[in-house]
Design a protein that fits this description.
transmembrane; TSUP/Inactive_protease-like; 3% strand; 2 strands; mainly alpha
């Protein structure tokens, strides 16, 4: 095992810790880790991220369910259109993106660069939501019509399919603002959506990519260990402060990715 692989597995543990402590942000660390440290192609990295985040979220779903913080009915209502969009994105949209998006003079924007820049933009939006101190909103008593949930699921599913993210940072506010469920239950409910979407999205990649199962399973196992440790440590660490600090870290990483891809 070389130094980069060792650092990669240490990174996997950190990914799990972050998921266990703040309930999201796993893909924000996983994709750059796989691309810049371990040298994986962005398409492969986003595929591996789906498996890691999906499997890890499954563990998180079980833990939240034991506390009664998972609304399965609402979660499944979002999951159906979302996993359809994620699967189609990974199976057809991502493989169908041309290797060179456009060229200006001697400069060419490649498919890998485009995916990473789009990923960085989503990271910027995520960092703002983590840094900004939001006000508690009163939850409405009447849920929205299902056709709106269906359209929202399609949009979020397509985005998460392209960037290989679990999308928890998108689903939590969607569940609070659109599905009108309490914040704590929204966090738990988002995990079941992330689990289903990520693993079904990964199934689309299995048909188009050669998967290094030995590495991926070990990386995922280490992440799960990190989650278990993170859930334990979350009892002793202030969640809001940690989330805000992580938001600034994500902001810096997003800027770094954009700088690295455009230079």
């Amino acid at each position: 095992m070389d130094t980069n692989q060792l650092l990669g597995y240490i990174g996997a543990l950190i990914v799990g810790l972050v998921l266990g402590l703040i309930g999201g942000g796993g893909s924000i660390l996983t994709v750059p880790l796989l691309v810049y440290l371990l040298g994986y192609n962005p398409v492969v990295a986003t595929a591996y991220s789906l498996f890691v985040v999906g499997t890890s979220s499954m563990v998180g779903t079980y833990q939240k369910h034991k506390k009664g913080l998972v609304d399965f009915k609402t979660g499944l209502a979002f999951s159906f259109p979302s996993f359809v969009a994620v699967y189609l994105s990974r199976r057809y949209l991502v493989p169908g993106i041309p290797e060179t998006l456009f060229s200006v003079g001697n400069y060419s924007l490649t498919k890998g660069m485009g995916i990473m820049i789009f990923f960085a933009i989503i990271m910027l939006l995520a960092s703002i939501s983590m840094i900004r101190k939001g006000k508690e909103k009163e939850v409405a008593s009447k849920p929205q019509p299902y056709y709106k949930t269906f359209i929202q699921g399609l949009i979020i599913g397509t985005i998460t399919g392209i960037i290989g993210a679990g999308g928890g940072f998108l689903y939590v506010p969607a569940l609070v603002l659109w599905a009108n469920i309490p914040m704590k239950k929204a966090v738990g409910t988002s995990l079941i959506i992330v689990t289903i979407n990520s693993l079904i999205g990964f199934m689309g990649d299995v048909q188009t990519l050669d998967i290094e199962w030995g590495f991926l399973l070990l990386f995922t196992l280490i992440s799960i260990i990190g989650i278990i440790l993170g859930v334990f440590l979350s009892k002793f660490i202030s969640g809001p402060k940690l989330k805000k600090s992580f938001g600034y870290f994500v902001l810096l990483m997003a800027v770094y990715i954009i700088y690295k891809e455009l230079n």
